[in-house]
Amino acid sequence: MSVDSTYATGTRATAGALVEEFAAAPDAGVREAYRRLVEAVWDGGTLTGLALPAASEIVDGLDRAGEDRAGLLAVLLGLLAEAEAYVPDSPVRAAVRQGMDRYLDLLDRCEPDEPLAQGLIYLLAHFPEDRDRILAQVSRLELPVDDLSRLDRCLRELDPADPDLGRVWPAPSVWRLTDEERAFDRAWIASLSPEQITVNWRNDTRNVWAYMGAKAYWTVRDGVPAAIPRVPHPADTGATVPPAAEAGPELLRPHAAAFRCPACHDGLDFGAGSVRCERCAVTYPVTRGILDLTEGISDAAAGTGDEASANLLRKLAEMPTMGLYYEALMRPEFLRVAGSNWDAAVTPAAEDAYIAAHVRPVDGPVLDLAAGAGRWTGVIAQAVGAERLVALDMGLPMLNTLRGKLPEVPAVRASALELPFGDASLGAVVCWNALQAFPDDAGTAIAEVGRCLRPGGTFTLMTFVWDTDPVYRHFQAAHSFPGRPAGMLLFEAEQLRTWLAEAGMVIREESGSGTFVFITAERAA
Questions:
Q1: Cβ-count burial of 394 within 10 angstroms (0-12 exposed, 13-18 middle, 19+ buried)?
Q2: Residues 305-350: pLDDT tens digits?
Q3: Where are the domains of the chain?
Q4: What is the DSSP code string of 327-338?
Q5: Nearest residue to 132 via CA among 163, 110, 157, 99
Q6: Which top CATH class is 309-523?
Q7: Please, one GO biological process term (predicted)?
Q8: Distance between CA atoms of residues 199 and 217, nearest Å
Q9: pLDDT per residue as tens digits for the range 43-66
Q10: Strands 411-413, 389-393: pairing kind
Q11: 235-261 burial, b for 16+ CB within 10 Å, e for fewer?
Q12: Is residue 457 a contact partner of residue 503, using CB atoms and an 8 Å limit?
């Protein structure tokens, strides 16, 4: 990399003036001054020509700014280092690292929940070459175990011979796996190429940086996050996934008229022991009350659906506690990051109340779309009656947990982008905290809901919109998940309104706190 060519447009005097303007800004003008500084050196993860001269000025500015403002500068230094974390001999990252003595000295004066401490911990997480020194200094802070495990993970170097991938978010410390689950992890990791291992490692690291950055930025900007109720860890309580009740097509048969074959769109035959499309000559497995419409067995391939059922049972056994981890440990933290819910303004009780107040079905089944592990399936069942409800998701571990908790509710494994239901066949649809799981195709999913809803039926959803602050928006977007390794993609509110209108729905209610959005729409006649 050529320093002259890449960082030729900035001067230290210009950078120093911006830092001084920020440090001296009146309290009412701090956010705007910070935004000007950020935008001058950093553009959504890409460095500007002013980044190199600014790095040293920002390090020096730590001593001139008050504690809260120094915390904001620490977050910005972390962003600069992160932008070129994997660029060999990055001059900007090197310039940021030159301040290591100062960072550690400032940290020595902090308490763990202070804004400056959180900003510094996020910044320090980008320098694994200083791991021993950083951890020695941090040890006196007595960080909460989750914070310490995040920092420890970011300061580790990849060991290609023994890569430890996955299970890092929201903190490595929450993942206490059984021997069987560790064996499952080792098996999928062993199937990866060296290049895939490196990509997965870096994605894991980015996820942890993004969580740490979001927490630090909220703390230095808005104050210490509100505590959220600590849910007992499944490993401490001995909680297990209740076995999904044995059930066949009879559990789904009351809703048979609403279903259609995902391939040919003809109706399905819910017989004595199987679900079948006669036109396609395909049998779909039903195991433990879960109908899998993704893996049918054709008559030409086999005479029965036994092979598909055996395959479904095997998949249900993989990582069976994922649903427990999600509900107890992952979902509350996801709401903090995606929904800017560090102030705990949106509670599970508030979500329950919204669903109960706004789901208003007409005749026909009620679909819990992307139902996950079933926490809100139970709420919907209380609102409309379990006998009306069908849960749909693509994740078998989640459906397995759902069926164990709600044996009276049938489940379907199928795509949200091509719902296995006929036109105007559903009385209501709920999609709660899930639309962002398929953001590239959210418009398609909403169009499918509009197609399947009967006139007057409600579509009730909760999802997330982008934060208007570019720094926090970066932390939202930097989270990657198995279905979207490039990073999280959220929505603009106006885009959601457009998709709903195009799907023939009229918004009856829209609200939300932070970056949450709650919407109830009705299918027009």
A1: middle
A2: 455 555 544 554 455 566 667 777 788 899 999 999 999 999 999 9
A3: 15-222, 309-523
A4: IIIIHHHHHHHH
A5: 157
A6: alpha beta
A7: methylation
A8: 26
A9: 999 999 999 999 999 999 999 888
A10: parallel
A11: eeeeeebeebeebbbebbeebeebbbb
A12: no
Q: Give the distance between the most distant pair of CA atoms in the chain.
A: 80
The position carrying tokens 């007409």 is 362
What's this model's pTM, rounded to 2 decimal places?
Answer: 0.89
Nearest to 115 by CA among 222, 221, 227, 220: 220
Q: At what angle do helices 331-339 and 470-477 cross, to 10 degrees?
A: 150
Contacts of 66 (CB under 8 A, 6+ apart): none
Q: Which contiguous run of DSSP H or E holds residue 369? A: strand 366-369
Helix then strand then coil, % of the chain, to nearest 5: 50, 15, 35
Q: How far is CA 137 from CA 66, 110, 276, 395, 482, in A?
A: 22, 11, 64, 42, 34
- Helices 306-316, 396-405: axis angle to 10 degrees equals 80
Give the total residue count for the chain: 525
For the residues 226-251, what does the mean pLDDT come to? 75
Task: Tell how strand 282-284 and strand 275-277 pair up.
Answer: antiparallel
Other CB atoms within 10 A of residue 218 CB? 22
Those residues whose C-beta lies under 8 Å from the C-beta of residue 140, and which sit 6 or more positions away, are: 108
